[in-house]
Amino acid sequence: MKRVFFPCLLVFLTLLSSCIGVDSKITIRRDGSGTIELQYRVSEELQALGELDGNEHKPTVPTGRIDFERGAARIDGLSLVSYAEKRQDHDRTYAVTLSFAHMDALMAFLDGFAGEAVLDQNKVSVSLSAGGKLDDELKALAREQLSGYEFRFSVQSALGGRSKNFEYAVPMAELLLAEDPVRLDIEL
After folding, report:
1. Looking at the predicted structure, is the pLDDT value of residue 15 above 70?
2. Could you give the CA distance from residue 42 to residue 47 in angstroms, rounded to a whole number?
3. Which single residue of 93, 99, 138, 142 has CA 20 to 30 Å from 32?
4. What's the pTM?
């Protein structure tokens, strides 16, 4: 079993206590290279929270082009292809495309993005961080604030000439309010 560890590049799943939606699509080519397309929507309130004095020590949601350039530079074989930001109503939408040269680069990215990622032959296991135990009032508040936000994760793989697709979608509140990490097992 091969385990690739990388300090959190995108540690936003564990810190999100406000409004965010994530859509990620990974495409793996036959040779193990590919692309990661991320689109996420962040509420203005969450964005402002990260900009307040006193929050510098907390992990932040990467939002600037430089955040992605620096993050990609930390992983051998990962590079930023494109970046776009758009304001709409009370949200900001970010669209980012990264390319990876080999599976180790993808695994390092996933390890930081999700919390833990393990590659074992042609299977990737990804554990998505959960929020832990909360009382009923906090759960109700989170459900209200996260209404309309979703987490979507898909993988299209042609690794080794085999065509495989994987899709997972869940309301963001359900993911963040899970008491245990959500484990995704993806056959490549």
Report:
1. no
2. 7
3. 93
4. 0.77
